[in-house]
Amino acid sequence: MPKRSGTLFVISGPAGVGKDTLLERVLPQIPGLRKSVSATTRPPLNQLHGEAYFFVSPAEFQQLVAEGALLEQAEVHGHWYGTPAKWVQEQLASGRDVILNIDVQGGLAIREKCTNAFLIFIDPPSLTELEKRLRARGRDTEAEIQRRLQNAEGEIDASREYDFLITNDDLEEAAEDLKAVIESTRADAPGTIVLGV
């Protein structure tokens, strides 16, 4: 019997909605699920290269694009982000499930390239609460906060293209919802095939 290929999941949502925190809680509870590491031109924020992101220069990023080495890429808040295709394909081929923490632009690009990928959107309880969380992080300028809030409206509007919507009102409940979605979906999924890469 041929080995089942892994399932690809995408998690998206506005900056400050709690995607990283949710994944930190859920990943250790789901064996066989790997988080993809994106390449970015954004400077590190007390993060190690290769763990949260692969930090590259704009020139290096454009070289990856030219080589067709990225599954998707998008400019978000003035910086480029992209998903290395080779690593994702290797994980899926080996039967491991992969989750991408990427923006809505990237999520919709994945939808076009990857058959049977599942898109999960993390929604804030309200834009007022999202603003409060962004300010509590203490790492964004006022201009950046306003830009992130403006972008959030478009991202929330695009969430109708996603398969699942989870509102992160209560962190514990949202983590349980995310875990349940992944576990129930992967049990029935035939695996993900990446097209055109």
Give a verbal description of the structure:
The chain is an alpha/beta fold and 197 residues long. It has seven helices and eleven strands. The protein has a five-stranded parallel β-sheet, with helices on both faces. It has a four-stranded mixed β-sheet with strand order 4-3-6-5. A two-stranded antiparallel sheet has the order 8-11. Strand 5 (70-76) and strand 6 (79-84) form a beta hairpin. The longest helix has 18 residues, at 171-188.
Q: Regarding CATH, which class of the domain at 8-36 and 95-194?
A: Alpha Beta
Q: Unreliable stretches, pLDDT < 50, 5 or more residues? A: none
Rough outline? globular
Q: Helical content, roughly? A: 40-55%
Number of helical elements: 7
User: CATH topology of the domain at 8-36 and 95-194, anyone?
Assistant: Rossmann fold
Give the strand order of the largest sheet, numbering strands 1, 2, ... along the chain: 2-7-1-9-10
> Which structural class matches the secondary elements?
alpha/beta
Distance between the termini: 26 Å
Q: What is the H-and-E element order?
A: EHEEEHEEHEHEEHHEHE
Looking at CATH, the homologous superfamily of the domain at 8-36 and 95-194 is: P-loop containing nucleotide triphosphate hydrolases
Q: Give a count of the beta strands, DSSP E runs of length 2 or more.
A: 11
Q: What average pLDDT do the residues reach? A: 89
Radius of gyration: 16 Å
What profile does the largest beta sheet have?
A: 5 strands, parallel
Strand content: 15-25%
What would you say the CATH architecture of the domain at 8-36 and 95-194 is?
3-Layer(aba) Sandwich
